[in-house]
TrEMBL record:
Residues 177-196 are annotated as: Disordered. The keyword Transcription regulation does not apply. This is Cytidylate kinase. The keyword Lyase does not apply. One of its GO terms (molecular function) is dCMP kinase activity. CDD domains: CMPK. It is found in: Cytoplasm. It catalyses: CMP + ATP = CDP + ADP; dCMP + ATP = dCDP + ADP. ATP binds at G9, T10, A11, A12, S13, G14, K15, S16, T17.
Amino acid sequence: MNFVVTIDGTAASGKSTTAIGVAERLGLFYIDSGAMYRGVALAVLRAGIDITDRHAIANLARKLKFDFKIEDGKVRVFMNGEDISNIIRGSEISELSSVIATYPEVRKVLVAMQRELTKRGNTICEGRDMGTVVFPDAAIKIYMDASLEERARRRLRDLHRKGEKVTLEEIITSLRQRDERDKTRKHSPLKPAPDAIHIDTTNLTIDAMRR
Ligand code: C5P
């Protein structure tokens, strides 16, 4: 069994920045499970599937293959060979991914893929249920959080850099809704694993998170 490190936590709490930095430094494989839920959301939009049709969405998810490549501190996400890194980061996909993530049929498909991906070698993975459900025996488990306002400011900077016109208030509303949905859903809700190390990143800089 390979060595697995998990980072779970709220949206925009610093999981990706930390996981990518650690993966680069220690030469670990990297899995962004949130990008997989986002990828399924993108495929659903493209296929025009009804977002309440959980069986059709799970069937569609089964046909997808994900891969992650880290280059110069940035991750590229591939879905069936297509680079979807940028198109999955918009607000519509954020919202849709958190809705389809409530469907156990879809989670089952992605969880099997996540476990399969760790067979390649030692891996760091980030998400909401990595330490609680997908890899309960992970060697190191981290749970990250930060204040809603700080997370919204970080997300605003990211989205503005990508040219999306959105206000701080809109992001606060969307993050709050997404956190609420992620924490209260019946299947694999976001919560710290009992053996997770808690890190509050509200007052941490990117450099401090990478150290
Ligand atoms: O991490 P990110 O914000 O990109 O994830 C998008 C959505 O995917 C989350 O809001 C959450 O609903 C879902 N997700 C999940 N389980 C994971 C990772 C992400 O339910 N392990």
